[in-house]
Amino acid sequence: MNYRKKSYNFENLDPWLNFLREDFELKGVGMGLARIPAGRGYTFIHQHEKQEEVYVVLGGKGIIYIDGENIDLVPGDIVKVDAVARRCLKADDKSELVCLILGALPAEGFPRKAGSTTLIDDGIPDWENLPPWYVGNEKVIEINKKLKAQREAD
After folding, report:
1. pTM (two decimals)
2. Within-domain flag for 152
3. Cα separation, 18 vs 36, whole angstroms
């Protein structure tokens, strides 16, 4: 099996930090879920040597403190934090804060191609084998032919 799937009830997570490394056998990305109770927050500020982090707010409200600035957080907010930035989270006094936290190290040697729209441009498209929901769809076959030609021209 080349994937892992697990479902989480974001409204019923264990409080504080839930690290997902073991659940998903992660090797290239740090990932955790934070559920901070209303009115509570981290008890210390932290930073990293190399790891940048991305905080995705899934529910509730709160703030992220970054280098002396309190930044309001609401569902749908995404905040990227540089490794050296000093940061911590706090839930709003009347609402818990639920976040997905992703961490990664610099992608040495990527992107491979100048002008790439993705950071890690190692995707290998299979233009001829369509997903089951598009098998036989002539419009999609033509779109893929054009995309393949564009990719090969680069």
Report:
1. 0.86
2. no
3. 11
Pick 74 or 118 by higher pLDDT: 74
- Mean pLDDT throughout 73-94? 97
Entry field: residues in the chain: 154
- pLDDT above 90: residue 130: yes
- 3-state SS string for the chain: CCCCCCCCCHHHCCCEEEECHHHHCCCCCEEEEEEECCCCECCCCECCCCCEEEEEEEEECEEEEECCEEEEECCCCEEEECCCCCEEEEECCCCCEEEEEEEECCCCCCCCCCCCCCCCCCCCCCCCCCCHHHCCCHHHHHHHHHHHHHHHHC
Structure tokens that stand for 79 in this block: 């905040």
Q: Which of 16, 4, 53 is nearest to 31 (CA)?
A: 53
User: Which residue segment(s) compose the domain that 21 sits in?
Assistant: 10-104
| 127 domain-assigned | no
For residues 65 and 115, the model is more confident at: 65
CATH number at residue 96: 2.60.120.10
* CA-CA-CA-CA torsion sign (9, 73, 62, 48): positive
More confident residue, 69 or 109: 69
